[in-house]
Every structure is written in C-alpha cells, then in structure tokens.
Amino acid sequence: MRESGAYFTGARLSNLAVREIGASIDNRSIILDPACGAGDLLVACFNRLARNDLVQKKEERWAVQFIGRDLQGVLCEQARLRLALSAAILDRR
After folding, report:
1. How far apart are CA 52 and CA 16, in angstroms?
2. Rounded-to-integer distance, Cα 93 and Cα 89, Å
3. CB 9 within 8 A of CB 44
4. In this predicted model, what pLDDT tens digit does every residue of 11-36 receive, in sequence order?
5. Measured between alpha carbons, how far is 80 from 63 in angstroms, rounded to an integer?
6. Burial letters for 34-60: b for 16+ Cβ neighbours within 10 Å, e otherwise?
7. Per-residue pLDDT tens for 63-77?
8. What residues are paired with 33 via a beta bridge?
9. Which of 12, 34, 39, 84 has its CA 20 to 30 A from that of 62?
10. What is the rounded CA–CA span in Å between residue 76 and residue 91?
C-alpha cells in the first residue's frame, strides 16, 4: 500500500489526536478526514462523541457528520463500514 502512497495513522495516534481536540468537538461538529484511509481518525472521533452521548443515533445524521475522502475507494468503503459497525454497537447499548 505504501507504494501507492497509502500511509495509515493507526488507532493509537488517532486516539491521541482525538484526546487533544476532544473538548472542541460536539454533536454539531462536522468531522472531515480528507485522507481517511480505513477510517481510524473518523472512528476515534465517533467513539469519543458516543462516549459523551453526543452522537445522534440516526444514520442519516452521522453519515453527514463524519466525512471521509481517499484516493483509494476501497479504503473509503472500509471507513464507512467501520463507522456503521461503531453505530451498530452504539445502538446495542
């Protein structure tokens, strides 16, 4: 993947970044990751908001609130599926 320019942030760095900005994001925030890869940063933001009960449980809302772009379309699909899985887990709570 690195040969095609793909570099992954990873969950550890994503969680660290979200800890640094976590107080500034809320349920009105739009989270945009212009190079989302498999969605580590988007998922970390989603989980942070979910922990604070700030994620609206309607898929149409979080689909607008969390936006990922990437040159590799398959990675965007993985990010979307990971967000859907996070939302499904949230619904089971």
Report:
1. 17
2. 7
3. no
4. 888 889 888 887 888 888 899 999 99
5. 9
6. eebbbbbbbbbbbbbbbeeeebeeeee
7. 788 999 998 899 999
8. 68
9. 12
10. 23
Q: What is the pTM of this model?
A: 0.81
Q: How many residues does the chain have?
A: 93
| 6-92 under CATH 3.40.50.150, yes or no | yes
Residue spans per domain, the chain: 6-92
Token duo for residue 68 = 């990922």
Q: For the chain, count helices (H), then strands (E).
A: 4, 2
Rounded CA separation 73/12 (Å): 24
